[in-house]
Amino acid sequence: MTRRTLVTALLVLAVVALFAVPLLLDGGTSEYGGTDAAVTEELEADGYTPWVDSLFSPAGEVESGLFALQAALGAGVLGYVLGLLRGRRSATPAVAAGAGDR
């Protein structure tokens, strides 16, 4: 095993430990709540009622999967557009230089 491979493996283990150790030490006793839940509770306590009801309310795991799919699609579109713009910019000087040779 080379030094570079060892350093990479240790860095990966360190990153995994940064995420795993707090969760293991906690033992699942903390209530990790998101801001959506906190805001919903506050609004309901103030007597707020929604104007419209949801058309589709998936289960928790399905909802997480749909959110991940949405994020992946958005990242794919953003990456495609940025790559397209970069490709156009790098191709433009080559075309302009070739046109001057005629």
Brief write-up:
With about 100 residues, the protein is mainly alpha-helical. The chain has helices spanning about 5-25, 35-45, 60-100.
Describe the structure.
This protein is 74% helix and 0% strand. It has 102 residues and is mainly alpha-helical. The chain has helices at 3-26, 35-45, 60-99. The protein contains three helices and no strands. The model has no long low-confidence stretch (mean pLDDT 84).
Key words describing this protein structure:
102 residues; mainly alpha; 3 helices; 0% strand
Beta strand count: 0
The proportion of residues forming helix, as a percent range, comes to over 70%
User: Would you identify the regions where 5 or more consecutive residues have pLDDT less than 50?
Assistant: none
Radius of gyration: 25 Å
Shape: flat
Run of helices and strands? HHH
Q: Counting H and I runs of at least 4 residues, what is the number of helices?
A: 3
Q: Let me know the average pLDDT.
A: 84
Hey, roughly how much beta strand do the residues contain? under 5%
Structural class: mainly alpha
Instruction: Give the N-terminus to C-terminus distance in angstroms.
Output: 57 Å
Largest sheet: none
Chain-wise SSE layout:
Blueprint: H1 3-26, H2 35-45, H3 60-99
